[in-house]
Amino acid sequence: MEFIDLKAQYEASRELINQRIQAVLDHGQYIMGPEVVELESGLAQYTGARHCITVSSGTEALVISLMALGIKPGDEVITTPFSFIATAEAIVLLGATPVFVDIDRTTCNLAPSLIEAKVTPRTRAIMPVSLFGQPADMDEINAIAQRHGLAVIEDAAQSFGATYHGKKSCNLSTIGCTSFFPSKPLGCYGDGGAIFTSDDNLAQAMREIRVHGQSRRYVHTRIGVGGRMDTLQCAIVLAKLERFEWELMQRAKVAERYDVLLSGRIERISCISARTSVYAQYTVVVENRARVQEQLHAAGIPTAVHYPVPIHRQPAYAHFSSADCCPVALEMADKVISLPMGPYLSAESANTVAITLLSAAGIALPEEITTTETAEQQSMAAATASALP
Ligand SMILES: *Cc1c(COP(=O)(O)O)cnc(C)c1O
């Protein structure tokens, strides 16, 4: 079993992807070719945002957004400590200070009720992360931002395709940033990312920053970066976009299978009302994680931990806040475990994962599992368990 099965995904779209790649090799416009423009207009339409700017990675999307907003040394940006490092890294790269606010235990997203106490005269922006594929509490966050004149950047690297009150992630705030890293729900075969906004001036600034701050050829109006996404990667995303909605449905089915078997038995990061998740990760909360992970591994089930150390406890980031600023993030970092997930994970595999997990956590198996299947898998799990020290 694969944690995320990228090979099966390629097989399913092989012809489309190969054709798209061949077309780029034939026209030879490797940088800023027609596929870049096609992808940007397709993604803008998909999210409903007025502008989409493709960039070289999700990390670069965050950096370019902050640059366009004029974030500078001395500024503060409120964010979550429970994310991939790139979220806070982008803030620090601009010389600004990340101000960490704790998360909500149910969703692992930024807890909006804790934000306002951290707003100071130096605060310039709030950067929530739509973690594991589920949009953060954007209405509450936008309302706080509006009261204090702040920008909101949604780090939507894991949530492209998710919805919030019917609106698409990436189009929920001043700026939305996503990533096409291969293992994300919509991935390319290298690095890539995109920025979304409906603000014309910000869009123009971000387009210029992406190409070294160039407003016309060899006229550099502002400081920029080399941040383009190459044509081949855009072509691959265009091909994968064709099956994307179907893939999201398959992901939701796997999540539903897990939900049915685990609900009431194991704490899960749940999708709350008025939003959908694209399940970049399906994550559960367990005590004694090392042992559970070991037993799953012994049964041939790969798992991952997102994330074992919250950002405010990372050596390079520890001086930005007090070590005990975010107790929920700290606790979750010790207990979360992500299960295999993807559009090509079979229902049987999902069953096996859930049953093995329950057994490893010492929880009675649900009755709705057919008895033959249960007996077989129980003995497998028991054999696994007895093989452990
Ligand atoms: C993956 C990810 C990023 C960075 O994206 P890259 O394309 O790898 O640079 C940023 N934030 C979050 C929450 C991510 O999951």
UniProtKB/TrEMBL annotation:
Top-level taxon: Bacteria
Record keywords: Aminotransferase, Plasmid, Pyridoxal phosphate, Transferase
Cited SUPFAM superfamilies: PLP-dependent transferases
MF terms (GO), sorted A to Z: pyridoxal phosphate binding; transaminase activity
Gene Ontology biological-process entries: polysaccharide biosynthetic process
N6-(pyridoxal phosphate)lysine: residues carrying this PTM: 184
Pfam families: DegT_DnrJ_EryC1
InterPro entries per record: DegT/StrS_aminotransferase, PyrdxlP-dep_Trfase, PyrdxlP-dep_Trfase_major, PyrdxlP-dep_Trfase_small
Catalytic-site annotation from UniProt: 184 (proton acceptor)
Tagged with keyword S-adenosyl-L-methionine: no
Similarity field: Belongs to the DegT/DnrJ/EryC1 family.
PANTHER family to which the protein is assigned, alphabetical: TRANSAMINASE, UDP-2-ACETAMIDO-2-DEOXY-3-OXO-D-GLUCURONATE AMINOTRANSFERASE
Protein's name according to its UniProt entry: DegT/DnrJ/EryC1/StrS family aminotransferase
Natural source organism: Massilia litorea
